[in-house]
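Duplicate of #3305? Posting structure anyway:
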């Protein structure tokens, strides 16, 4: 994953240049348009682009919502700039199967632009990703992946309403206007079968190229966020997608943590102190041990006087999957401004322990954590992909 085979000129360029030039490089590097670099390649089965009522100036590429996996995890390849995460509970007597099948069908018509509830807006790269909470999974099987609640950790201030939940609807799009409209359509579809608990809007910062075919956004601490993760198909099969049992195969486990950040206190640090918190350079994302932005942090590298270049409590050391002894999580977080500035941390992994063991290790000593307070926390089984012959949720609740 950590590629060491870029031509030297390109690597040097990525290391020393700022965001703007580097973003231009991404747009031009593959010969594709800036548009497809931003939105990712459409999967072969992507639906035909619907005709918009009024032509949009920059039209994001539609994302295939049906298939082996749901969209909104690895597709589009660069996550869309805007997100609305909506968490709800199911009524006590509601059977999940029919509700999920209807929601899946509504997602299909919304993303195809054929749902009148979209009010003629162009869906572009809209994706909707649906997950179910531990209570619903346990009702099918107590040992299934997704059946376990997320434990509590330090530095939490979570109201009971914002802990857990039965249903996650993650809506992402290039056009922020689509989010509340799609959410209203899906809530309308569900009717009184669900009660909303909380919702969170998020925004990705400027995307910075971090590998030949990949970019990651800056977060509101100014650092590039989302560099390390399962990015190749083989890594995703190993660490991201659930291999079984059949009821959950090709799904994944999501963790959502709304983390408020004490921006003022962080901004009062010198740049070198900020970089020591993460273990990476702020401008370039390069590990403090050197190399390029996609080099693995050299955790053994030391200064001549014997100090670690990546400090012992640096975030990238505490969270390093090899040190923790877990697989890679796919982080797809969004920056937030309300109810307070911070990060809606979102990770996807095929073993909940990947997240829990990482945060448990961060809890004991991670220079980043004292700047954070977690105010919402939940985990969901992201349901396997679906198509008209096998509706959303049918493998688990059919
Ligand atoms: C406000 C909260 C957080 C912020 C701002 C943040 C930011 C970052 C940044 C900037 C990096 C370095 C670049 C990269 O690889 O993406 C990073 C790495 C990482 N973070 Fe976080 N993070 C936060 C919370 C968390 C949490 C809660 C977890 C999981 C429990 C986590 C897991 C990781 C992992 C696994 C890495 C990669 C480490 C490596 O192998 O180098 N982060 N994070």
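Output from current build:
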């Amino acid at each position: 994953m950590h590629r060491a085979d870029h031509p030297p000129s390109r690597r040097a360029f990525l290391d020393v240049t700022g965001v703007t030039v580097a973003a231009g490089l991404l747009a031009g590097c593959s010969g594709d348009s800036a548009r497809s670099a931003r939105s990712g390649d459409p999967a072969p089965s992507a639906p035909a682009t619907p005709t918009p009522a009024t032509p949009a100036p920059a039209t994001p590429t539609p994302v295939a919502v049906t298939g082996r996996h749901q969209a909104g995890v690895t597709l589009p390849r660069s996550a869309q700039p805007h997100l609305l995460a909506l968490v709800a509970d199911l009524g006590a007597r509601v059977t999940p199967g029919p509700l999920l099948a209807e929601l899946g069908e509504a997602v299909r018509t919304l993303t195809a632009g054929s749902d009148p509830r979209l009010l003629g807006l162009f869906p572009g790269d809209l994706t909707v990703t649906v997950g179910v909470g531990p209570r619903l999974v346990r009702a099918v099987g107590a040992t299934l992946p997704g059946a376990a609640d997320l434990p509590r950790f330090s530095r939490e201030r979570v109201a009971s309403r914002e802990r857990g939940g039965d249903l996650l609807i993650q809506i992402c799009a290039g056009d922020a206007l689509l989010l509340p409209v799609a959410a209203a359509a899906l809530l309308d579809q569900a009717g009184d079968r669900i009660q909303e608990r909380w919702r969170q809007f998020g925004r990705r910062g400027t995307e910075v190229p971090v590998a030949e075919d990949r970019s990651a956004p800056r977060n509101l601490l100014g650092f590039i966020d989302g560099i390390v993760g399962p990015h190749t198909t083989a890594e995703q099969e190993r660490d991201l997608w659930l291999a079984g049992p059949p009821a959950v195969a090709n799904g994944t486990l999501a963790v959502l943590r709304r983390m408020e950040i004490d921006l003022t206190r962080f901004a009062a640090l010198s740049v070198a102190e900020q970089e020591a918190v993460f273990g990476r350079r702020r401008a370039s994302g390069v590990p403090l041990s050197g190399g390029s932005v996609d080099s693995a942090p050299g955790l053994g590298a030391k200064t001549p006087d014997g100090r670690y270049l990546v400090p012992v409590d640096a975030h990238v050391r505490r969270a390093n999957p090899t040190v923790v002894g877990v697989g890679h999580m796919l982080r797809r977080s969004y920056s937030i401004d309300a109810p307070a500035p911070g990060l809606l941390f979102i990770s996807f992994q095929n073993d909940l322990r990947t997240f829990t063991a990482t945060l448990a290790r961060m809890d004991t000593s991670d220079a980043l954590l004292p700047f954070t307070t977690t105010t919402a926390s939940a985990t969901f089984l992201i349901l396997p992909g679906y198509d008209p012959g096998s509706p959303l949720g049918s493998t688990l609740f059919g």
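Confirmed duplicate; merging threads. The two ends are 38 Å apart (CA to CA). Residues 96-112 form the longest helix (17 residues).
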